[in-house]
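Trying the structure run again after the queue cleared.
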Amino acid sequence: MASPAFDMSDREAVRVRVKICEGKMKPVHKKFSVDPQITTFEVLQSLLARAFQISGEFTISYLAFDNAGRELYLSLLSDWDLDAAFLSSSDPCLQLKVETRPFEEGLEDWDFISQNDEILPRPQFGVPNFMKYNVDRQALAGITGSILNQVGRTVTRVQRTLGFMPDNESLPIGPTRPPLSVQEWRECFLDGVGHLIKPQELRLAVYHGGVEPGLRNIVWRHLLNVVPESLSGTERVEYMKRKKAEYFHLRDLWKKQVIDGMMTEEVKYITNLVRKDVLRTDRTQPFYAGADDNINTTALFHLLTTYAYTHPGVSYCQGMSDLASPLLVMMKDEGTAYICFCGLLQRLRPNFMLDDTVMTQKFQHLSDLLQHSDPTFFEYLRQQVNISDPTFFEYLRQQVNISASSA
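Done. Tokens:
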């Protein structure tokens, strides 16, 4: 059940007060309001860049208070941080600080922190446990510039370790065969009545060359095991009709509660959670362009809510929309996309379990890989931050993306 103290669904706007600091110049202040339901970290960055006419890099932090009531600024680095800021520090307004020169210039050597530099422990705040980070943000901010100078070399080493890149090449190896075509699909992988044959060879063909776009909505169903291999073409059509009817029945169960105004706390929690993620779907994509009630955006909301409602052991986690969205785009049918999404989650659902066991294991693998491919860089990071914390790798991924986009 969602805690009322952290329910943002009834807030249509959050007032924001921004202070920009540029070197020794006098700070400049601006005020505006944002919708917390649809404002992402990326959107906030764009708003601030336009409002202050910032053309270069800048950092964002928000005003918070520790348990002793002392003021301090915490870095905004992701959507998760922005959610935490909205929930814990936006009453009566969210106070932001923008700094346009986050790092010192001229530090080309990545290992620039000396043994005398003191990394202060991060204070504990009066916010829920799920919002507390074990990674020291002050330490991360202090070493971000040095990390980025090394990341490029490390990524190349990791790629070579995994076999993605030969030692004498600078680009990854491309597909080893043409994409699977309609003709090849019919002649090589279906018999006279439409039974799937050679399923293993089909997967290898897709792995090595992909699938032509016009055929993906058919082949993906087999790759996701949503239709039994023993069915003929006609039987598959009837099977999908039955499964889609089951989906719409399940969808109507929770929709009736919404229409009748008799939602349970569970349905309220799920719909608020899903709606927030769905409204963040990239509207620059024609499929999702337009108003919030775009038919495709609504379909994405329906299928994600239905999955969370009918799978209470998993419910909804951030990131599921990123998996469901391309399925809906490719299938162009809500019911079929839901069935495929269930097939995909049958494999990936451990990644979304609350105990984080699988994700912890994956991050440990990533840590081991980094240690193997670049032990010097690994040891440097281990001395500066808690490298075993998954939050660190998410932070590092964001910085790599920022660095790549600005290159």
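The first strand starts at residue 14 and ends at 21. Worth checking whether this holds up in the mutant runs.
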